[in-house]
Structures are given as C-alpha cells and as structure tokens.
Amino acid sequence: MDLISLYPTWYEPTVGSGWVVALIATFHVLASHTSVGAAMLFAYLSHKAYREDREDLLDFVKKYGLFLLVFTYVAGSITGPGIWYSTTVASPNGIGALIHSFVWKWATEWVFFVIEVVGVYMIVYLVGRVDKRTHMKISVIFGMASLATMLIIVGILSFMMVPGKEQWFADGGYLNGFYGTNTFAQLGMRMAFMFTMTAVVGGIVIAGIKDPAFKKEMARKLGWLGIISTLIGAAMFQWYLTSVPDQALLVMENRLPDYFVPSIMIVLAGTLAYFIITMLRPQMIVQGFAGAMTIIILVAGLWPEETARESMRKPWVAGQYVYSNQVIGKDVPGMDIKSQLPTIEKVGILKAHPFTPDHLKEVNNGNMIQAGEFIAMTYCSNCHSPSETGIRPLHRYFPEGVSQERVAQYVKGVLTTGNIAYMPKMPMLDSEAEALAAYLVLNNDGGQAAVTAAIDTEIEQRERALAEQKAQDKVAAVDLQEGK
Amino acid sequence: MDAQQVAQVTEMMYALRNPAGIPTFPIIFIGLGVLTFALHILFVQLMLGTSAITLYGAFNNNAYWRRLGAAMLEISKVSVSVAIVVGVAPLLFVQVVYDPHWYTSNVLSADWVIAFIVILILAYWAMYYYYFQNGKNQDKTLQPKSRWSMITSLILMLVVGFIMHSLTSQILHPELWKEWYMQNGKLDYSGTQLHAYNIWRYAFFISMAIPVTGAMLVTYRRFKSVREDADHDYLNWAAEVGKKWIKVGSVISTVLYVAWMATLPETAGNFATSVWGILGGVAVIGYALWAQLRLKGEARFCSYMALPMALVIGLIVAISREMLRYDILNGFFNYNFMDYKIVMDWYSTGLFFLTFAIVGGVVLSYFLTIAWKSGQTVGVYTPGATVNKLGTLSIWIVALWIVQFFVVGFYVWAQ
C-alpha cells in the first residue's frame, strides 16, 4: 500500500489557515490564562474574606467572577475546543499526533475542566447564599482545578515543540513525551504570564469599585501581583529559550520579523509602568485604561509571542516528527512510526496522496497546472499562501519574471532534497517538480486569475478529449454490431 | 458500488489512520464516546428547550409563563456551559478511533467548522445579553426587554447544531469524500460547503428537547416544592406542562425517529429493522409510557427520576447511533475501529480513570451537594459536619493530584 496519511487541504486565501489557528489560539490564551490566574486569586481572596469576615472581598469576587464568566469562560471554553477545530482543518496530522499520544491527558484535563465550569458558577452565584467558609472551600478547589488544567495542557504544548526527553524517539512512552526541561520552563513562563493577565484584566473590575480605600487596596494587591509575575515571566522566558532545540533558535534568529524583540521589550516595560502607575494613583484605573492595556498586551505581546512559538517549531508542527505540511518526516521507533518520505520518493506525492483525483495521479501536458496546484496546496500552502495576502505569500519568494526552468531547478535542488533548515524535505518525481514549477511561475506572473484560466482550459480540453473518445467508442461499437 | 470501489475506499480510510496508534483498547474510547455523547446531547436538548420556554414566556402575557421563562433562562445559561464542557469529551474520543472520518469531514467543510466557533460564541453572548437586560428585575412577570437577543440566541444555537449534524453525517459517506473534494471538475480547497445532512435525523435530535425539557419542569417542581417560600400552585402548573411535554414530545420524536430510519443511506443495509434500529425508537416512545404510568399526582420519587430516565433513553439512542456508524463503516466499507494499532500506555490510562473516579467523583459530589442544598434553602446555607468534611477531602484530593504531577514529573525529568 503506497498511500500515506494525508488529508484534503483547506485553503483560506485572505489570511491563510495558519493565521486562523493563530487568531483563535491567541484569543484562547488570553481568556484561559486570565481565567486560571483569576481562579487562584479568588481562592486567596475568598480565604481572606473568611479569615477576616469581609463582605467587600466576596463582592469583588462576585463582580470579577461574573465578568470573567461572560468574557473569558464563555469565550475561553468555546475557543478551547475551537483550537481543536481550527487545527483539525488546518493541520489534521499535527493535532492527530497530539491526540493519539495524549488522549488520556486531555481526558484527565476534561475532568478538571468540568470541575472548573461547575465551580465558576458556584463561586459567582453562591456569594451570600452559602457561608464564607464553604465559599472559601469551593474557591480553593476551583483555583487548584484551574491550575491542574494548565499543568496538563503545558506538557502537550511542550511536546509540540519537542518531546520531553530524547529517549521518547527510541522508547516511546507517554511520560518521556510529556515531561522535560521545556515542559517546566514553559510552565513557569505561562504561570507567571497568567498572573500578569489576571492583574491587568482585574483592573477592569477595580475600575468599578466605588470605595476609594478598597479600590486602593485591590489596586496595590493586583499591582504587586503584576510586577512580580511580569519579572518572573521575563526570567522564565530566558530559561525557556535554553530548552528549545538549536534549530528553533536558528529559526528565531533568522526568520522572525524585526519587530518581534522590540515589541516584546516595549510591552514588558509598558506593563511594569502600568502597574506602578496604578499602584501609585489607583484613581487612574478606569475601565477604558485597563481595557486598552488588555488589548495592548494581546496585540503587541501575546500575538508575537504565540506566533514566534509557532514559527520556531519549523519545519515540524508536532513532536519533531510531523512536518508542517502534514507529512511524517522522521522514524520514531519507540512508537513504531515510519517516515513517509521513502514512500513519496518511490511513487511521488500524487500517487501517495489518498485524495489525488485519478486524472491527476500522473502529470502530463493536459493537467500540468492542476497537478502543480495540488502539489503546492499539499506541500506549501500551510506555511506559504498562494494568494496575494495571507501567511508568507509564495509570490514574495520568487522574483518577477522568473523562468520555469529556474524555478524547477530550485524545486529539484533545494525542496526535494530538504536543503533549507526550516523547511520540510519535499520529495517529488521529476514530472511533479516540473508541474509545481509551472504552477508557481504562472501564479507568480498572473496570480489566481491566470491559474484559474489555465485550469479551466485544461478541464475543457480533457472533457473534449473524453467526449471524442466516447464518440469513437460508440462508432466502434456500432461497427462491431454491424459486423464491419 | 462494486467490490473494487469499496476496496479503494477501505484502503483510503486505513491509510488515513494516525501512525502513532492509540494508548489502550479502542472499544474503551467508543464506550466513553457514547456515554459522554448521551450526556452532551441531554444538555444540548435542555439548553434548546429551556431557551424556547424563555422565549415563549417573553412573548406571553400569562404571569406563570413569564415566571417560568425567567426561571428556565437560569437553567439554559448553565446548560450551554455544561453542554460545551461535556461535549469536549465525545469530540476528543471521536478523533481517536474515527480520525480518518472526522478530520476529512471537517476539512471538506472547514469554513463551517470555523464558523461554528464564532456562531456559538455569539449565540451564548446573545443569551447573556438578554439575561443582563432582564436578570435584575425583581418582578419576573414584567414584559422582558431585548427579546430579539433571545430569538437570535436560539436561532444561532440551532445553526451550530445543524453544522455539527452535517459534519457527523459526512463521516458516514466515505464513498463521496473524493467527489466532494471536486466541484465542477475542479479541486475545491475552500471548505465552503456542507455536503451531507438528513433533515429527519437532525429534527429527531432537536425534537428530543421537548420531552427532556418536560422532565426538567417536573424536576423543577419537585426540587422547589420543599422550599419554605414555594408557590405550589405555580409549581404544580409547571409540572403539568412538563408531563404533557414528555408525553407529546416523545410521540413527536418517535415519529421523527421512524422517518430518520426510513431515510438511511443504502450503505446502512437493514439497520432500520435491526435490533438497535428498533430499540432506539422503542426507547423514545417508552418514555411517554413511563411518564403516563409513573408521573401521576405528586410522584415524589419519580419526579426526580424524570431526568435520569431521559438520560437512559438518550443513552440507548446514542448506542443506536453508534451502531449505525459501525454498521455503515464496518458492515459496508470493512473499516473496523477495533483493529486500530495499540501502543499500550498503562500509566496514562490508569491516571485518567483514577482521576475520573476519585477526583471527579468526590469533588463533584461535594459541589452538587452544596448547589442542591443551597437551592432548597431560603437565606444562607451552612453545611453540616459531613458535607464540610467532604469539602476538606476534596481539597486534599486535588492537592494530592497536583503533588503527584510534580513528583512524577521531576522524577522523569531527573532520569
């Protein structure tokens, strides 16, 4: 059997499927980290309310909790599975690799997730309806359950970058895949970040506090939480960088946009400044200011950080064995996984792909552009959009007027051999490389309109040829019947 | 389809399996998938039914309906959350053993998959908007404001239900996947279309919202009737509405179930007349009979049994649904989920079941006891010593789980 586990391709021409995943994931990170941090803050405040018999703290928990319930739990609980949905359509083998190795980890997280969802409703709606001690207990359980969800997911996220231990490749085993330096470094970084987000988003709720003394107390508490967690987070990020593969650092140095480092530094400084200002002058915390700060962190801090983490994994998308184009590019003896590259080298990508239409399985003059487009969609479109916009558009990589011969040389000499460090090896038969080159040049010169026109012509010619063949067969059949 | 075409489809499905295999026996994932689907669809149906009552109450001048509408909005909000969180589990398990089918179906309709996320968020926010507009009204008999937002919410919920229905239906047609990938002779990478649906199947699952919500009303009366401030006339009226909904709703659902079975694809063979095909319908109509026999008068015990009974009925239907999938994919296309490659991992398997049973069991028992008791108490509820101990035990169990995470983790890391 020469078929490999490749699915159809989803091509989103405006922003690209990769960015759709990134948008949903970034939003989810904001919502989920804020929720987990707030859950732990609630545990602390509820405990304090019980010890000191304070209604105002519980009132704050209720207000902040209701706010979170609507804006982060609702959106967070939907965008969580939303990441599954978006990665399913953008990178089915990437998410499949994670699901098949860590299904029980996700199932375990789900138990805590159920506790969390029931817990948040109880924390919000039972203020004043149960005694403070019971509320404190619910809050503590809720806080710890939220933390448990983060502990679990971070191990899976780390595996995306690199399996916990090198041993996993040889011996397999869930523990070897899950735990490693990267897991703990990322855990420290994310926990710090979640408290930073809690402090920032909490400002939106503090803005609504009428009592100046209480407002000042909460601003100070959240301010200190924010400052300490921001500084620890920055240190953890440095540790994290020591735990990623060398390849990832190489990609980071060479491929990340110029604005990445300044952007992170500015956000870091801005966040610290924000907390200091709000601690010194709590009256400055109005909903607009706190809301704007949340957006700034989301756009200027979280977005570059999450997209950097995505980019650094290249050419892999999961576990250093699934390429970003969904092909399995490495043997993993511990899991009895075989690289799919030898199969593709033997039969070509068109025959190895289960969804190649029959008339495209072999390249000829009548299907050159369709076959080229199919190969580009399969091999390239996850990271390079064939459109004008979207993720790293293909046209940026080829000079205007480049010849088909030159592109074919590039495809055969560089792509099929895997000579670019951060790109997958993409085996192709010579005829397939020619088809890809023809498509790339046409797309480069005339864009989607030219490609569509060429494909329409190919289809028309094929249909005409089929009709002629059918007519000839009919004549031959009649001749045979008449005994000619 | 001839034998060669079937063989090609079978080969394609097997090729799409994830080479990493699965960490335990596939039947366990199927079992958990069926169980959690039954729970998920119960809360989906509750959410739809209680939303419908909220809307009906909002447009009705009857004071009882207005009050019931306001009360059901509270249940609807929580049901959406629970439906989402419980729905994560069947979504996880279907990817484990039916990954070739689920992933293909999703990619071929990718725009709708992404739309699902956005529409569901909007639907939920629309419901909350309605709640914030009206939730603080002390007088629940006043005409609610912003009724459009509740209408929007319900319509959008039905849309996301249809998207999910279609994605699930597409799983059952592997023979058409390649055809769907080609539109008018060209490959279609856009994912803009939903390719398959069975309107009767969709209508059946939606219609089950009627008897399930009926069960909720019967339970609501029983639960609230022990409060000191209970309005028994109103609660009895609500329970009578509920009984009617169970009986009439079950009949409607049975008719739709029969229509679904009558319109199964050819690849399902004789499933409609098989044991599981018939049992699903019998279970649904059986619910009406049960209500007729067991929900007479006060029915103090059986009123609390109405929702668990709905879950049992839903579970039987969920098994039928799973058997249908198995009959088509294995019976016709020879794809047997039971022969998925197993890379056994006892640790993670054991950890899940222990977490599920011990952490989930103890903590949720504590949470639900508190929620239950406080719901029946006027004023502040203070638990007794036993419930308090259960709370302390819950804290220790979760703390212990976190400790084991780090102990095992540091040990593995240090090796």
Distinctive features:
heterodimer, A: 484 residues, mainly alpha, Formate dehydrogenase/DMSO reductase fold, Cytochrome Bc1 Complex, Chain D, domain 2, 2 domains, two-stranded antiparallel ribbon, 16 helices, 1% strand, elongated, B: 415 residues, 14 helices, 2 strands
Please give a structural write-up.
The complex is a heterodimer of chains A (about 475) and B (about 425). Chain A has about 475 residues and is mainly alpha-helical. Chain A folds into 2 domains: about 15-325, Up-down Bundle (Formate dehydrogenase/DMSO reductase fold), CATH 1.20.1630; about 345-480, Cytochrome Bc1 Complex, Chain D, domain 2 (Orthogonal Bundle). Chain A contains 16 helices and 2 strands. In chain A, a hairpin with a 3-residue loop joins strand 1 (about 315-320) and strand 2. With about 425 residues, chain B is mainly α. Chain B folds into 2 domains: about 5-345, no CATH class; about 345-415. Chain B has helices at about 5-15, 25-60, 65-95, 100-110, 110-135, 145-170, 175-180, 200-205, 210-225, 230-260, 275-295, 300-330, 345-375, 385-415, and strands spanning about 180-185, 185. In chain B, helix 3 (about 65-95) packs across helix 4, helix 9 (about 210-225) packs antiparallel against helix 12 (about 300-330) and helix 13 runs antiparallel to helix 14 (about 385-415). The mean pLDDT of chain B is about 95. At the A-B interface, helix 1, helix 2, helix 3, helix 4 and helix 6 of A face helix 1, helix 3, helix 4, helix 5 and helix 7 of B.
How much strand of chain A?
A: under 5%
Rg over CA atoms of chain A: 28 Å
Principal-axis shape of chain A equals: elongated
Largest contact between protein chains?
A: A-B, 101 and 97 residues
Strand residue percentage of chain B: under 5%
Rg over alpha carbons of chain B: 24 Å
* Distance between the first and last residues' Cα of chain A: 44 Å
Distance between the termini of chain B: 56 Å
